[in-house]
Amino acid sequence: MKKNVKTTQPDEPKKRITLASTVSCEMEERKSLFIGHASPVNSEEEARAFIEAKKREYHDATHNVYAYLLAGGTVARYSDDGEPQGTAGMPVLNVVKMSGATDLCVVVTRYFGGILLGAGGLVRAYSAAAKLAVDAAGLAVFEDYAVMEIVVSYSDYQKLTVALAKIGASEDHCDFGTNVTVISAIEKARVDEITKTVSEISYGKGEVKLIGYEERASRI
Q1: For residue 107, which of 47, 43, 169 has the smallest C-alpha distance?
Q2: Of the candidates 152, 142, 154, which has an alpha carbon nearest to the alpha carbon of residue 217?
Q3: Which residues of 118-155 are buried (b: 16+ CB within 10 A; e: fewer)?
Q4: How far is CA 172 from CA 151, 161, 163, 184, in A?
Q5: Closest by Cα among 76, 127, 135 to 102
Q6: Please, are residues 169 and 219 in contact by the beta-carbon 8 Å criterion?
Q7: Which of 31, 37, 151, 157 stands 20 to 30 A from 212 (CA)?
């Protein structure tokens, strides 16, 4: 089994907060329908693709306003999509920034209901629809995990499985050959716990090798 993992250790533990899922939520404001769509994204290309997908899906809508935030907040874009300047895209972006997350995109679709909301009403409605979607998507914390290769005897394998679960390490893959080879991962700062665990359950006979690092969702 091959994985795309970094083979060099980061200078310090990295944690990233983004959305946990992709959602759409509806709300009504004075007969106008607002649909908030929120999704985690990893690049501007992914953000634009999400926006274009919603524009195609809701091509008959009056407006498809959007905002996205990337790279720890250093990249921020928004669009009013025809609404009065400052009443739509910026309020959505403010909600995105206030969420504490990065690498996310929010699109708010509006179907005009015939009643003008005024500048203040638009700001409140777009903000509310964006927040509804972000709250529904939830947040996930990601950080660097150490991916380890562990080799133990068949007699120690069952003990290893129990021990890994006890310390919260994953058991991603297992090969049964002359010995048992397990691919496991744990938060980077806790690598020593795996090494100690394997030594204890195998009386020093087990082998542990660091494969690399990859970003995964950590325990929340």
Answers
A1: 47
A2: 142
A3: eeeebbebbbbbbbbbbebbebbebbbbbbbebbbeee
A4: 14, 11, 14, 6
A5: 76
A6: no
A7: 157
Confidence at residue 205, expressed as pLDDT on a 0 to 100 scale:
94
Query: According to the model, what pLDDT value does residue 218 have?
Result: 66
CA distance 65 to 37: 10
**Using an 8 Å Cβ cutoff, are 130 and 108 in contact?**
yes
- What is the Cα 126 distance to its own chain's centre? 23
Q: How far is CA 51 from CA 13, 79, 90, 130, in A?
A: 32, 11, 16, 14
- Quote the CA–CA distance of 200 and 45 in Å, as a whole number: 48
Q: Which amino acid is at 216?
A: R
**Phi, psi for 195 (deg, rounded to 5):** -60, -45
DSSP-assigned letters across all residues of 50-61:
HHHHHHHHTTTS
